[in-house]
Design brief:
about 25% helix, binds zinc ion, alpha/beta, seven-stranded mixed beta sheet
């Protein structure tokens, strides 16, 4: 009840407008804009915490020709919705706003709906504002007792879980994870929590230590990587070199799962892929149903990835911090 009052009171208070982050021509600013209208079937949400991810930094650099409010990793409180039972609840939300009636939506694959918009990425204002909207069907109520600073990792955890939905890796088969950035650390933690033997390769012991603390074997590479040793390699380097390096680690008939979204073209020598009959699997975002139970899992140590927390009003400083070398997750609150 308290939450409900705080949410509604908050909205009334913001009649004069709300704070929203605005990206344009490489610059990050905050603006005062009207509180968004809630279309039928949508919920009006109040941001509790948002996570800045590499995609947000790429939007800032102007990829996808983006101008507007970014933000797709969030925890929020429901302020207004058709379903009164949701009001006051803490929620996380799926970021793809799908059409619900195309071939892909009818197959339960709304993440591939050709008519979709995407929260904070494609034609739907993002979560880095005091209030924002999402369809009710996108929302998942958080279990009690999950702290906001863990729950804010639901979306990237779901992206890590997507791997296990796409490929079935036999238990006990070792998996190599290449890269020790945010996504690499989440992938190794998720696979490890599912009981796989995971070896993570990266350049930074200070980052790898987070995965090591969860029981992942880690190796600092300094340029040399194992050759043709793994049937399963996850590429999460965020670098154009990643595909070539990951493919060289895979055994003949092995599978390389590509998690890095790289802008621009990656030159690929296809000969090693063909000669070794390597399967390439592109992998993007995943279902929240798989990720939410992991928020409660002892082997998922996401909080250690938080480098800094800023109020929404200091978004420009938060984006600068997130872009610094070696910085993992920066939160907006
Ligand atoms: Zn993201
Ligand atoms: Zn659709």
């Amino acid at each position: 009840m308290l939450n409900l009052l705080s949410g509604r009171a908050a909205k009334a208070h913001y009649h004069g407008g709300m704070l929203a982050v605005h990206l344009e021509n490489g610059a990050v600013a905050t603006r005062t804009v009207p509180v968004p209208e809630r279309p039928p079937g949508f919920a009006l949400l109040r941001l509790m915490a948002g996570g800045i991810c590499n995609t947000d930094l790429e939007l800032q650099r102007g990829y996808y020709g983006f101008t507007g409010t970014p933000g797709h990793e969030f925890v929020a409180e429901v302020v207004e919705t058709d379903d009164g039972a949701l009001v006051g609840k803490r929620v996380v939300g799926e970021i793809n706003l799908n059409c619900t009636h195309c071939e892909w939506c009818l197959r339960g694959m709304g993440r591939h709906c050709p008519n979709r918009t995407v929260l904070g990425i494609v034609q739907h204002p993002g979560a880095f504002s005091e209030f924002f909207t999402l369809p009710e069907r996108n929302l998942h109520v958080l279990p009690e007792g999950i702290p906001v600073e863990r729950a804010v990792f639901t979306e990237p955890l779901a992206a890590a879980c997507e791997i296990l939905e796409q490929v079935s890796i036999p238990p006990h088969e070792p998996i190599a994870v290449l890269g020790d950035g945010k996504l690499g650390l989440l992938v190794s933690q998720v696979l490890n929590a599912h009981g796989y033997k995971v070896v993570q390769f990266g350049r930074h012991m200070d980052k790898l230590r987070i995965a090591e603390g969860c029981g992942v074997c880690v190796e600092v590479t300094n340029g040399s990587l194992p050759a043709a040793e793994y049937d399963w390699v996850v590429e999460a380097t965020g670098s154009p070199e990643g595909l070539r390096l990951a493919a060289a680690m895979a055994r003949p008939r092995g599978t390389v799962i590509l998690k890095s979204t790289i802008h621009g073209r990656v030159p690929v020598d296809t000969a090693p892929l063909i000669v070794n009959e390597i399967t390439l699997v592109g992998s993007r975002c995943g279902r929240f149903e798989q990720a939410i139970p992991l928020l409660d899992h002892a082997l998922i140590q996401v909080e250690e990835m938080i480098a800094a927390r800023f109020p929404l009003s200091q978004a420009p400083a938060a984006f600068r911090k997130a872009a610094e070398r070696g910085v993992l997750k920066v939160l907006l609150e």
